[in-house]
Design a protein that fits this description.
- It is built from three helices and seven strands; from the N terminus they run βαβαββαβββ.
- The chain is an alpha/beta fold and 163 residues long.
- α1 crosses α2.
- The protein is globular and about 40 Å long.
- It starts with a strand and ends in an 11-residue tail after the last strand.
Length: 163
């Protein structure tokens, strides 16, 4: 599926709507994982900001580039935590070991957002990430336009719309 965004507000709205759909879908057998890819400045963090709002979080999402991962509690509901990981600085898959991601991925009450997920793609099966939605951000035909492509490794129910 492909979506077109022409502004950061539209990208945030797309993230908001995506979070709402995942909340309605509820937990699976393991964590719900969104693997975000795209060039520097393509709007990955902007999408995450909208996603956080859609989850009901009031804190501003900032990319955890230097600390690698942040956790935010979701309180009461079907999901308990959202983890935001930025793999930009990772050079080797072995660097993921310090984060101890496997228990995070095994917990069905977690949502995991991974920026620069293409850098750790080979580790996702080992981390038991069975249900991964790949979100690819790329430039559109116009200057401020972005294309958001969705591809999933498990069945999710998403409807098409422009953001």
């Amino acid at each position: 599926m492909v979506y077109i965004s022409s502004s950061s507000a539209a990208t945030k709205k797309f993230g908001f709507d995506l979070a709402r759909k995942i909340l309605r879908l509820g937990p699976g057998r393991r964590a719900r994982v969104l693997a975000l890819t795209g060039d520097l400045g393509s709007g990955k963090t902007t999408l995450v900001q909208g996603f956080f709002r859609g989850l009901g979080l009031r804190r501003r999402a900032t990319s955890p580039t230097f600390i690698l991962m942040r956790r935010a509690a979701l309180g009461r509901g079907k999901f308990r935590n959202v983890f935001h990981l930025d793999a930009y600085r990772l050079r080797k898959l072995s660097e993921l070991q310090v984060l101890e991601l496997e228990p995070v991925m095994l917990n069905s009450k977690n949502i995991v957002l991974i920026e620069w997920a293409d850098r750790i793609k080979g580790a996702l099966p080992r981390l038991k990430a069975s249900s991964v939605l790949w979100v690819r951000r790329s430039p559109g035909q116009q200057e401020n336009q972005r294309v958001i492509g969705l591809r999933n490794t498990k069945k999710y129910e998403y409807t098409k719309h422009s953001a």
